[in-house]
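Researcher: Here's my situation. A collaborator sent me these components and asked whether they could plausibly form a single complex. I don't have experimental data yet, so a predicted model of the whole assembly would be a useful starting point for our discussion.
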Amino acid sequence: MDFAVETYDLTKSYGDFNALDKLNIKIELGQIRVLLGPNGSGKTTFLHLISTVLRPTKGTARVLGFDIVKQQLEVRKHVSIAFQDPRGFWRHKPKHILSFHASMYGIKDPERSSIVERTLKEFDLWESRDKKFMDLSGGQAKRLEVAKLFVHIPKLTLLDEPTAMVDLDGKRLMWDKIKELKEKGCTVIVATNEVREAEYLADKITIFSSGKDIVTDTLPNLKDSVKGGDVVDMRFSDPISPITLQTLKRLPGTVGIIEVDENRLRIPVTRSEDWLPLAVSSIHGNRLASVHITEPSLDDIFMTIVKPKAETK
Amino acid sequence: MNYLRISTLLKFDLRESFNSALWIGYSWIYFAFQLFVYGSIISRLIVTVNNYFYFYGTGLIVLSTFNIASWSGRRFVESAHEGRLRYMLSLPIGRREFFVEQLLHGVTVNLVRTFPPVAIVLYLSKLFSVSSFLSTLLVLTLVAIGVMGLMISLSVIAFKSFDIYSAIVAALSALLIRFSTINYPISSMNSIYAGASLSNPLTYGADLLRRAIGLDSSLLVNQDAALSMLLALSVGTLFLGIFFISRFVEGVKSS
C-alpha cells in the first residue's frame, strides 16, 4: 500500500449542489498534504467523508486500505480528525475530554493519565485543565482540539484549519507539533486557507475549488508553473545600454521588462533559477551591482493558475 | 457490540449531564411543588376517583419521564446542530452502539431524576415494597426507551428543518399527554377520547405504573395489554431509531 487515501469519483451532494464533485485524488503515506482553497471549495467535506463522519452520495474512497463505506469502523480505528470549530462539550473539562478520547482508542490507566498530563503540558493547557470547555478562549479550544490527536497517534491525522483563531506563538507551536506527527510516521492532511501554513507544512499541496481538485504538486513546482511568477530586480552600476536591454528581452523565460530608472530593471520571468545564470553570462555592456528575486506566493499561484482553470471547468 | 466503548461513551455523557446538580435538584423541587400544592388541591376537587392524589402523583411521574425522554431526543438533535455529533461519529464506535449508548444515557438520567419522586409517592401511598419499587422503575424504563426511540427517530426531520421538528414534537407531545390516562382515568372519558387514549402508549405506561404501585385496578387498562403495548413500543422504536440513525445521521450538516 503506497497511498493513505485513494478516492474514486468521490461525490457528496446536497440536493442539486455538489459539495464534492467526482474527486479522484491519491495521498502518499507518511506525507503532509495540505489542501488549500477558498471557503466552500470542498476541503472540509473531503475530510468528513474520509473520516466517515459523512457518507458519500456517489463514488468511494480507500483510507489506509479500508473502504469508507463498507469498512467504516476499521477506518475510524486508524483515523482521527481535529474539527474546524470545536463545540458542544460545554461543561466538560480539558483533562476529561482528552482522557475520554484516549479511552475510546483503548488506552488504559495509568498510561492514559500520564499521556493526558504530558499532552496538556505540551499544548500549554495544563493550567486550564480544570476549566469548563465553555470557559476556554477560542485559541485554547482550538489547541485542545488538536491535542486530542496526540493522546494516541493515529495512522492518518486530519486537521481542518488547525490554527484558525490561534495567536502567532500558538500557530508556530501547532505547526511544529503537526510536523512531529509526520516524524512519528503518521500521514497528515491539513485543510487550510492560510497560505503561510501551507508553505510551512506541506510536502505537497492540493488546491481545491468548487468541489474539485484543480492541481496537486510540490510548492517549488507550483511556483515554477507560474509564467512570469518570479520577479527579478536588477540594479546596474552604470546606465543600462540598449544592447543589454535587447539581450535580456530575448532570453528564454523573460515575460516582460519594466525600466524602473536608468540603472534599474524589474523583469518578470519564469523559473528564475534557470533564467538568472543565462542573464548574468549574457550581459556584456553593463556591470551588475545587485540582484533581488521575489518568488510568487501561493496567492499568486491561486490567482494565475487555478482561477482560470476553475472558471473553464 | 463493543460494551467497553459503549460504557466509556456513556460515562463521558453522564459526567456532563450530572455536572449541574442544580438542574437535578430543581426537577425534584418542581415535582414536589407540583404534587403537594397542585396535586393536593386538585384531589380535593375530584371526588369521583378514590385517592386521586396518588393517581395524579403517578401520572406526574410518567409525565416527568416523558419530558426527560423528549429532552434526550432533543439533546441528540442539538448535538448534531452544535457539531458535537460529528465528533462522536468520528470515534471508533459503530452507529448501532452509538444509538444504544444514547438510549442508555437517557434511561439513566431518567432513573436518577425520577428516583426520589417514585420513592415519595410510594412512601406516601404506604404501598412501598421492594417489588413495587423495582416494577415501577422497570415500567418507567420501558416508557423512557419508547419515547426516546421515537424522539431520536424523529430527529431525522430536524436534520432537514429544526423548525418543523420542533413543531411536530410540540404537537405530538400535546396530543400524547392530553389523550392519555396521565391525568384522568379512562372511565371518565367519553367514547371518542377513550378510543384515542387506548391507542396511546402513555396510557399503558401510566396505568401499568399505577398497577405496579398497587392503586385501584378498576380504573386501569388491562395489565397484559399494557405490558405488551409498552414492550412493543420500546422494541419498535429501538429498531426504528437504529434504522434511521444508521441510514441518515451521516448526512447531517452542522450549523
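Model: Some features of this prediction you could bring to your collaborator: Residues 3-251 of chain B form one domain. The longest helix of chain B spans residues 52-82.
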